[in-house]
Amino acid sequence: MNALTQGDVTTRPLSGGAKSQRWIVASNIATLGAGVAGVVLGLEGLVGHGFAFLASGVVPPFGLSIRTTDLGSFFVILISLVATCVALYNFGYAKSGHLSAISLAIFPIFVATLEIIPLTASIPSFLFFWELMAIESICLVLDHYQRERAQHAALLYAAVTQLGFFSILGFFALVASRSHGLNFLTLQNAVASLSPGQRNLAFVLALVGFGSKAGLVPLHAWLPKAHPEAPAPASALMSTAMVSLGIFGLIKFVVVLMAGGPTWWGMLLLGIGAISSIYGVIESSVSSDLKVLLAYSTTENMGLATLALGTSLVMTSTHHPNLAWAAAVATVFILGSHAMFKGLAFLAAGTVGLETGTTDLNALGGLTRRMRFTSGAFGIAALSASGLPLGAAFIGEWILLQSLIHLGPANGLVALAAPLTIGAIALTSGIGLLTMVKAFGIGFLGKARSDLGEGLEERFGVMQFAMSLLVVANLAIALLPTAFGSVVKRVAWATPLHSLHGSGQGQLGQLTVYGLTGSIFPLASAVLFTLAVLATATVIKLRKRSRPSDADVDLWACGARDLNSAMQYNASSFAEPLERVFADVIRPKRDVEIITFEESRLLISRVELRSTPHDSIESALYLRVWAIASYGGRLARLAHNGSLNRYLAFGAAGLLVVLAVLH
Amino acid sequence: MSYLALLIQLSFVGLGSPALIGMMAWIKNRLEGRRGASVAQPWREIRKLFSKQIMNPKHTGAFFSIGPLLFFASTAVVAAMIPLITTELPLHASFDLFWVVGFLLIGTIALSLAGLDTGTSFGGMGSSRELTVVALLEPSILMAIYALSIRANSSNIFAIANATALHPARIASPASALAFAALVIVVIAEAGRLPVDNPATHLELTMIHEAMVLEYSGYRLALVKWAAAVRLLLLLGLISNLFLPVGLATTNGIGAMAIGLVLVAAKIALLGSLLAIAEVFMAKLRLFRVPELLGGSFVLGLLAVTISYYLPAATR
Questions:
Q1: How far apart are CA B52 and CA B45, in angstroms?
Q2: Nearest to A301 by CA among A384, A405, A237
Q3: How confident is the model at residue B203 (pLDDT cuts 50, 70, 90)?
Q4: Which one of A51, A113, A439, B13 has the largest count of C-beta atoms within 10 Å of its C-beta?
Q5: Which of B47, B128, B156 is the best mutation test for A, with the most CBs of A within 10 A?
Q6: pLDDT of A201 above 80
Q7: Which backbone phi and psi does B233 adopt, to 5 degrees?
Q8: Is the peptide bond before A321 cis (omega within 30 degrees of 0)?
Q9: Per-residue pLDDT at A17
């Protein structure tokens, strides 16, 4: 096996020795236990009786307050399903020595933290675990802490996540200002007495705080930096479970706790969701590293979820309860399917990295022969992510489209917003299609683009088993979405006009949205498609006798010989036409230098192409903020000249200001 | 009875599509001053290819071999989902326009992946260009569907066709005209006709679809050619029955279906001839000018939608 460590001497993997093997097994069993326990607890909360308790010793001095809600339990199930698969996957992944001791120690606690957050029922409990989650995930990003890029990514991530944390802190301070308790239930009653201005400010703070966790534009830049640095199973958890908690926060605190707001709240969410999804997918389509591509795709999908959430809020405030309900259902489906296909994609990318030592698409290719299971798994993940029929993401998008096209005669901003939203969804799914074809087609098909080492043929081990569980989950969502109907119904926060009884379910697998006309029947189409493939293949096979036997020939090369693998399209050239079309958005940094012979300017000796991947929003916004902050820092330094008298004077002035304000 | 209708529709599509291609080629040849081959020529070619030897290029992957199969099968499934002759097809309540258009894309994607699996620059070039067009086409498609679905308050194809059949006055409305123009551009791009792609080119650096399928031979090429013909027929049939569902049977009576069959064949032949005539006077657009055309289609769709919202119900 061509291990990552060959090219990367700075890694200190935990390998060799019975002691470390025991350590690995203990960590994975603990993670697995946390995952399974999460599934059980989530199911108890969702279909069982639920539970609530206060553990006074845990988060002193307030105590850990837990209460199951349908929404929270759904997220717990989502997180723990991914966590269970990741834990199983780790049995294989950690054995090859690619997880540091710190990561191994953090995995089980990280999973447990993620599972507790949706169940917390008071401000201190929530904030404690929210911050714990941030610290743990920073440690996971620093798995290869000696690498400079990892340090940079962790620093950026820490800065963004702390900005988010302060924002959330501010939100809670505002919301709790009229409340007598810190419990969410008490809070809910107190929120009504806030003034509109306070409510609007609280909404914006929540949007910044939770949006940064969900990786929404412009607070997305940490995602594509952190994911390539974190180990693949950690990326799988962070990119599914952790970012989903950002959307959970928006739903829980903006929609449930504050009970929605004026139309512009929904419009703002819709706008930010649309920008995030389009920007995320464009950046994703031009990325040439598999993990960066998947990270940007996370921004895209969280953008879509936010867009659906915003649609739901807009429909509520414009009195379309059935449409608000449909959009809420769509949000739940988008989050659920994203967790399943993105988890699968990251795990498959991890296997590729393990086997070939790289996730750079420009070096990969020709993996289908060598890694059958992983290629198949990534293929399913790509199909699900691309928003094609028979893929999991289509279901959520279709329901969202249904919600929008049933708007009917409307006026004002909504009548213009609905078609533009559909345009945004369509552009996202169109470019998403290209992105996923690129990820699968360049990464796995064709010929290898570099020397990837001689690998043994892949065998079905525990890692492949973990991936196949996620494959099943993806296919289940895509083909039998109705099986999740009763769960989604309880989780979606909006309530349709009439009660839910008698909502036509049709035949098994036929999906209709309550109160709206139209349905799709994925299972029937899948069966028809399979039958059509089999029938065509059979006819061709039967006629085999009547034609001459096949002959092997060379590929067409316009008369040239010796086609080599560098002549294939690669990740950069595949997306080049799109990159040109969207050059204004992504501002590619690319230099082409043509070096000619000295004797004649017309004879070219070499062409050099240098392309620097960068994030245009990061370059435009973050660097400016950074420059302003440094300037402020330099100004502040002028005041600190080391004179004790001056510092005493500052102290006295501060005290006077405080006294003046308090009186 | 609805299964009989399905059988008739599938046979019509399967047998009629090569004739459609042949007719369009004949018209173009005539207008360009040549005699033109018989209308049945594509039909003969496909038959011939089915019994020819497969030239298997070295080092191609498994996806290369199954690509044409998936392309053909997905097209066949779509052929069972579109109201061409009658609205009473099996399972018609579930044939949503978003779903059907998406299903057509499955075939496109299968061919693109097959192109990448050859490991040559031609295959990659074709699939990269095809997907760039698809990515930018998607907003126009969805906007056109949106514009159509407003009339029927549903995106089900059969509901849209029925709504137009019930209110023939709406055919000649501003919204309908705009949506029609938008959808025509979509169909041209989706079927790979001029000015987006030129199906007559072979071994030119401008080609899109032909670049992806360059390495195919024998029955694989036959499947690709046949399915491409079927897709053109389906798209023309779709556009004619969504905007002018004259003759579309609403029952499964033999007589009604016979009328439906004749009329839909006539409408498709008319649209095909118009397309062929227009293509004679047109050159292919540069690839980087195509986004402008597609952007135009998107704007037309957007206008159709907003007109539907702002004009009173009687006129839209």
A1: 11
A2: A384
A3: low
A4: A439
A5: B128
A6: yes
A7: -60, -45
A8: no
A9: 61
Q: Which residues of chain B does A405 touch, with a Cβ-Cβ cutoff of 8 Å? A: 145-146, 149-150, 155
* CA geometry: angle B68, B70, B74, nearest 5 deg: 120
Structure tokens at A483: 């099986």
Among A210, A484, A207, A479, which Cα is nearest to A329's? A484
Closest CA to A440 of A370, A479, A386: A386
Q: Which residues of A touch B143 (CB under 8 A)?
A: 419, 422-423, 426
More confident residue, A96 or B60: B60
Q: Are strands A604-612 and A589-596 parallel, antiparallel or unpaired?
A: antiparallel
Which residue stretches of A63-183 are H helix?
A: 70-93, 101-116, 123-141, 148-175
Q: Does B72 touch chain A (CB under 8 A)?
A: yes
Q: Which residue of B69, B117, B120 is in closest CB contact with A536?
A: B69
* DSSP secondary structure code for residue A254 in this structure: I
Could you list the beta-strand ranges (E) of A468-588. Answer: 511-512, 519-520, 551-553
Under a CB-based contact definition with an 8 Å cutoff, are residues A34 and A107 in contact? no
Give the side-chain half-sphere CA count within 13 A for A395.
35
Q: Does B117 touch chain A (CB under 8 A)?
A: yes
Token pair 């079905």: residue: A460
CA–CA dist A421, A266 (Å, integer): 12
Task: Select from B119, B116, B118, B120 the least CA-distant residue to B108.
Answer: B116
DSSP-based three-state secondary structure for A612: strand
Is B56 close to A553, i.e. CB distance below 8 A? Answer: yes
pLDDT at A5 over 50: no
Q: DSSP readout, B238-262?
A: HHHHHH--TT-BSS--HHHHHHHHH
pLDDT at A151 over 50: yes
Q: Which chain A residue has its CA at the smallest distance from B118's CA?
A: A446
Under a CB-based contact definition with an 8 Å cutoff, are residues B55 and A519 in contact?
no
Q: Does B10 touch chain A (CB under 8 A)?
A: no
Say how far residue A256 (Cα) sits from the centre of its chain.
Answer: 23
pTM as predicted? 0.93
Residue type, A207: L
Model confidence at A2, pLDDT cuts 50, 70, 90, reads: very low
Number of H helices, E strands in chain B: 11, 1
Band of the pLDDT at A4, cuts 50, 70, 90?
very low
With contact defined as beta carbons under 8 Å apart, do A385 and A345 qualify?
A: yes
Quote the crossing angle between the two packed helices A290-317 and A321-356, to the nearest 10°.
170
Written in H, E and C, the secondary structure of B196-231 is CCCCCCCCCCCCCHHHHCCCCCHHHHHHHHHHHHHH
Residue B95 has pLDDT above 90, yes or no: no
Flag if A550 and B94 touch (Cβ within 8 Å). Answer: no
Tell me the per-residue pLDDT of A574-609, one tens digit each, with 9 for 90 and over: 999 998 899 888 888 888 888 888 888 888 888 888
Cα–Cα distance for residue pair A197/A195, rounded to 1 Å: 5
Q: Which of A317, A305, A184 is nearest to A246 (CA)?
A: A305
Report the candidate in A428, A160, A164, A420 with the shortest Cα–Cα distance to residue A271. A420
Q: What is the pLDDT of residues A468-509, one digit of tens each?
A: 999 999 999 999 988 888 888 888 887 776 555 444 455 567
| Block residue for tokens 């903020």 | A625
Q: What is the pLDDT of residue A501?
A: 47
Cis amide leading into B83 (omega within 30): no
Residue B94, pLDDT score: 84
Tokens encoding A528:
């028809």
CA distance A505 to A215: 36
Interface residue B58 vs chain A (CB under 8 A): yes
Contact A576 B128 (CB under 8 A): yes
β-bridge mates for residue A608, sequence order: A593
Q: What is the CA radius of gyration of chain B?
A: 19
